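TA notes, week 10

Several of you asked for a full example with nothing omitted. So below is the full record: structure tokens for the whole chain, then the designed sequence directly under it. When grading your own attempts, check the secondary structure regions first.
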């Protein structure tokens, strides 16, 4: 059924009669200290933040160095938001359903031929990560193929024609591939490029003037991405070639513009209320188990508060967007480094300043693959790496410069006092993901590993950085 969308979205986004409480001088000073201290401690060059309270933006600010040519970041610079883009892709498909052009219960094969399991994958399963399509970019680094341009169809020809990781609806597994499929279907059904559709239906009505493709947000006028190997120097990173994020994470925008979207969510404005509700409803697996993911967003609980959340990672950028519906609040943090926990630490810290503090949580899980992870860690400290333990992509990542930075920054720390699991293993992109916490006197590091399933699975990812 075609429903008439509510007009005059800008009016609906005006502050509610209940007056928003501005930041107090104490809160403003605490946020400034939090951000500047966190950037210094984590060696992240810059951050851009936006804070919503009582449905109104009460702070939009930038800190640090945006690039080698922009020594001071500005609040009007668009940062890459990566997978925070998924909620917009999902909403585009919901809007097309409103227009009667598709149903989220339609099967993929109705619109795109040649997709593995396409006769059994519903469109909503693409948006809820329950399709079974293998993720094409589970790594937290840029793998070899990403140095060459790609088209959405090029991604699908490699990853969406592999056998499914599971039958549609049987499991939840994050899949960028599913969103690439969704993007192509949106373009086919709408008859226009995905970006044009989003500009017409969402970005322009909400006054989100900074939004553009991340492929068009690279160069001297834009923030630059940075990274580091282990605890080595912070270095500019080479962006991925054109086309790699597309509908899975192609957007760049300011924190303030993303906050406008958050206000629309809080107020159920611009778009039909049932579209917002459908996006925020946890998906169900075939066995009736609820996931913590809706259509392009996570639904989490933090100290009893419901949080609509997503994070994003592109080459050299990390971001997080947290929306607290009951509290009419939201926190956006965009950073230009994909090394270190600054983005998450800042977001949690701001929430603790503008909302009651959240409780600390600790995870204790059984050990898995720790012996192999410790072996590789010790080899990197010594500068002698057994490359047979690594996949092709991991070997591509560990350049001579990477090995030198790992050794020079880790060896002086000496022997760790502990090397412990951090959370349970998770399956993604055909790999098992396992984190570790590595402790030294006065210092703690995080280790992120991906490895092939099986007792002798080779390592696909091995990233070390300061602890969150």
């Amino acid at each position: 059924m075609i429903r008439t969308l509510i007009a005059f979205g800008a009016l609906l986004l005006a502050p509610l009669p209940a007056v928003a409480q501005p930041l107090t001088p104490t809160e403003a000073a605490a946020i400034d200290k939090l951000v500047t201290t966190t950037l210094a401690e984590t060696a992240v060059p810059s951050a851009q933040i936006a804070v919503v309270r009582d449905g109104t933006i009460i702070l939009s600010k930038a800190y640090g160095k945006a690039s080698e040519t922009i020594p001071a970041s500005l609040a009007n610079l668009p940062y890459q938001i990566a997978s925070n883009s998924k909620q917009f892709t999902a909403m585009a498909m919901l809007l097309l359903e409103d227009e009667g052009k598709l149903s989220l219960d339609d099967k993929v094969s109705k619109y795109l031929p040649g997709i593995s399991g396409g006769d059994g994958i519903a469109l909503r399963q693409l948006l809820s990560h329950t399709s079974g399509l293998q993720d094409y970019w589970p790594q937290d680094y840029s793998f070899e193929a990403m140095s060459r341009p790609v088209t959405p169809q090029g991604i699908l020809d490699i990853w969406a024609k592999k056998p499914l990781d599971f039958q549609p609806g049987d499991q939840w597994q994050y899949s960028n591939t599913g969103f690439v499929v969704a993007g192509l279907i949106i373009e086919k059904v709408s008859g226009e490029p995905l970006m044009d559709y989003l500009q017409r239906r969402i970005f322009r009505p909400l006054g989100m003037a900074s939004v553009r493709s991340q492929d068009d947000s690279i160069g001297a006028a834009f923030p630059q991405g940075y990274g580091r190997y282990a605890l080595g120097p912070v270095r500019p990173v080479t962006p991925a070639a054109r086309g790699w994020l597309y509908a899975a994470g192609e957007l760049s925008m300011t924190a303030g513009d993303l906050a406008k979207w958050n206000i629309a969510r809080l107020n159920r404005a611009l778009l039909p209320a049932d579209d917002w509700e459908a996006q925020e409803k946890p998906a169900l697996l075939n066995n009736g188990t609820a996931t913590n993911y809706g259509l392009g967003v996570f639904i989490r609980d933090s100290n009893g508060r419901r949080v609509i959340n997503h994070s994003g990672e592109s080459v050299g950028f990390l971001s997080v967007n947290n929306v607290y519906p009951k509290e009419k609040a939201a926190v956006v943090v965009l950073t230009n480094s994909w090394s270190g926990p600054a983005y998450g630490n800042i977001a949690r810290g701001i929430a603790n300043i503008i909302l009651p503090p959240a409780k600390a949580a600790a995870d204790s899980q059984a050990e898995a693959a720790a012996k192999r992870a410790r072996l590789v860690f010790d080899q990197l400290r010594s500068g002698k790496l057994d490359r047979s333990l690594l996949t092709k992509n991991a070997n591509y990542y560990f350049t001579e410069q990477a090995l030198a930075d790992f050794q020079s920054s880790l060896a002086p720390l000496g022997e760790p006092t502990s090397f412990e699991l951090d959370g349970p293993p998770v399956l993604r992109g055909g790999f098992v993901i396992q984190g570790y916490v590595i402790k030294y006197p006065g210092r703690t590091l995080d280790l992120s590993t991906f490895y092939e399933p099986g007792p002798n699975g080779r390592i696909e990812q091995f990233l070390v950085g300061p602890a969150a």
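Residues 1-18, 358-366 have pLDDT under 50 and may be disordered. Use that as a sanity check on your answer.
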